[in-house]
Predict the 3D structure of the following.
Amino acid sequence: MALFNLGVATLVYLPFVVLSNKAQTVIEQEESEEDIANALKF
């Protein structure tokens, strides 16, 4: 059961990690605010 909960937690957490990495990459590239918004929207 603990392993199952860990899997669910990972699945829930992963999208936030991906979004954070994506946003950080865009910010580092010094893109415009419009590009940042587009990156966050995918």
The first helix runs from residue 2 to 28. The two ends are 34 Å apart (CA to CA). The chain has a mean pLDDT of 80.
